[in-house]
Amino acid sequence: AYERRFPTCPLIPMFVASDTVNEYKSEDEAIHVIERRCKLDIDAPRLLKKIAGVDYVYFVQKNSLNRRERTLHIEAYNETFSNRVIINEHCSYTVHPDNEDWTCFEQSASLDIKSFFGFESTVEKIAMKQYTSNIKKGKEIIEYYLKQLEEEGITFVPRWTPPVACKLESSTSHTRRPVSPAINIPDSATKESLNNKEILNTSSSPSEPTAGTPDDKLDADYIKRYLGDLTPMQESCLIRLRQWLQETHKGKIPKDEHILRFLRARDFNIDKAREILCQSLTWRKQHQVDYILDTWNPPQVLQDYYAGGWHHHDKDGRPLYVLRLGQMDTKGLVRALGEEALLRYVLSINEEGLRRCEENTKVFGRPISSWTCLVDLEGLNMRHLWRPGVKALLRIIEVVEANYPETLGRLLILRAPRVFPVLWTLVSPFIDDNTRKKFLIYAGNDYQGPGGLLDYIDKEIIPDFLGGECMCEVPEGGLVPKSLYRTAEELENEDIKLWTETIYQSASVFKGAPHEVLIQIVDASSVITWDFDVCKGDIVFNIFHSKRAPQPPKKESLGAHSITSPGGNNVQLIDKVWQLGRDYSMVESPLICKEGESVQGSHVTRWPGFYILQWKFHSMPACATTNLPRVDDVLASLQVSSHKCKVMYYTEVIGSEDFRGSMTSLESSHSGFSQLSAATTSSSQSHSSSMISR
């Protein structure tokens, strides 16, 4: 299929023609190498072509087909202007190491513009535009020729076998794999995923087994039993994302079912799924959500007046949650508990839902990854549209949508009154489109007719308040006594207490405005330990020492010393008049930390005084021969919307005599959510590594 794009391809307008320069075939026909000179009509401004003095650009492409190893490697480089611009591209088609019915595709390229008549920036933009366009069309083109082959009756290419003589010579040393059917590239992938990483990147070794799950992640029985029906493309996306987590997040990682939810929420676009998954894992770590069921007890007010609870399961085996929203005094609950306690209770409900899904998967012998929610709106009135109550509801929806995607299998809304459209208008914009499609709304007693409740829930478990025979133990709700209401100040203090029950602090890092933490050391040989996550952007981590204390940050100053933002604070301690080497010194080598990494380490102090931990915005390095950034950094910068980074950090000072016995606390209780650990790193001059190993 790939060879059919030569000598020219109508699907690539810029590809005008090609000539074969060299060709080689091995005697056993296992190796076929062909080198072509390709003529391209680049979409560039006419003035630029005139200045350059060319109408066409020539590239040399070398295709190496190895039928024995079942690989196709493609290398290309520019012939035109090679003394001014260097372009290298490499593509490879290989067989997946764990499933030989899959084709793995990998593509990479580099661009180095030395000089181009003063139009370096323009040439770079043109090159990026053309390359991006080609990547997006790559899958479309290969599918076009596959379809063309099928129309000609070619649906299978026999596996290469060595000639008889060769076969006899190598029979003792080679074992062939069984013949597999023709490779079929599925069409189920979304258009957005037509990129240079369409199928699993095979440059890495196959993912290692995860504790608590079957060893062979590609086993068909495992997929059917725990994950459900997946296309080859979806399976590949799951493996890629799981492998990335295993390589970058040391320790325990989320289960396949959890990873799969985030992939489904983003239509199996790996980059988007990885972004929201990393954000969610960081959020879970910061608020210790993994332990909420074991460590947090809901206030009695919630247990008495929150009209919701779990009630058996639906016909598909999904756990069933019943919410009598019309009978619930949302205003009273918010006034008595505050927004944060209400949110935390909803999070505990979701965590319980995940646990019940796992249980039902074992009970029913098939994957259950979501639950059904039945919402009874009888009694809903204008009181439920109280502004702070709606605000709390919208916040809850936002948090749940971000951290529990694809957990709602179906939402049955019953007995919707006339006021419901008003509430729906307020909340629907905050609900994901995929989630909205799962909503079924019934007015009055419509739920009792055809297509109603009986289609989704067995008659035996329909709650009594809906006309069924099953006693439902969900609290009836009712008005919260005003005697339980609390003042705004009390609620604010309670809210702060709820969400600061974490040892981690958040900070924002801006370009030109690092975040700095001051640590005073009295006894030399103390140990400064740190544990931080880079939530957004890339940063440089530094440690400095000063004999004199820096001036405390001025809270009123937004630009010079202190910046406060909803996403975290920013404090700068090192005065601009201070000089490195005179007023303060660097005691560790700078450590560049990428977005998504989790870094732990320590420094054994040599002198008393003041130590400053600094998180600084990491700017892209320029090429050695030019002032232009590297191509991969340009691509990375497109993902960042502003010159802002976010870090979440924890620091601790340990006395020298307690060092050996206390370091385990940093690894265990303080960093309990170990699946977030992206890279356990310590600086090159730090003594912590040897201490830990002892």
TrEMBL record:
CDD domains assigned to the protein according to its UniProt record, in alphabetical order: SEC14
Domain PRELI/MSF1 positions: 1-154
Cellular component terms (Gene Ontology): cytosol; Golgi apparatus
GO MF terms, alphabetically ordered: RIG-I binding
InterPro entries according to UniProt: CRAL-TRIO_dom, CRAL-TRIO_dom_sf, CRAL/TRIO_N_dom, CRAL/TRIO_N_dom_sf, GOLD_dom, GOLD_dom_sf, PRELI/MSF1_dom, SEC14/CRAL-TRIO_domain
SUPFAM superfamilies the UniProt entry points to: CRAL/TRIO domain, CRAL/TRIO N-terminal domain, Supernatant protein factor (SPF), C-terminal domain
Cell location: Cytoplasm; Golgi apparatus
Domain CRAL-TRIO, first and last residues per copy: 298-474
Assigned keywords, A-Z: Cytoplasm, Golgi apparatus, Immunity, Innate immunity, Phosphoprotein, Signal transduction inhibitor
Pfam families per record: CRAL_TRIO, CRAL_TRIO_N, PRELI
One of the GO biological process terms: negative regulation of RIG-I signaling pathway
Domain of life assignment: Eukaryota
Keyword Phosphoprotein among record annotations: yes
Boundaries of every GOLD domain copy: 500-653
Function: May play a role in innate immunity by inhibiting the antiviral RIG-I signaling pathway. In this pathway, functions as a negative regulator of RIGI, the cytoplasmic sensor of viral nucleic acids. Prevents the interaction of RIGI with MAVS/IPS1, an important step in signal propagation. May also regulate the SLC18A3 and SLC5A7 cholinergic transporters.
Quaternary organization: Interacts with RIGI (via tandem CARD domain); the interaction is direct. Interacts (via GOLD domain) with SLC18A3; the interaction is direct. Interacts with SLC5A7 (via GOLD domain); the interaction is direct.
Protein name, UniProt field: SEC14-like protein 1
Source organism of this protein record: Tauraco erythrolophus
Organism phylogeny: Eukaryota, Metazoa, Chordata, Craniata, Vertebrata
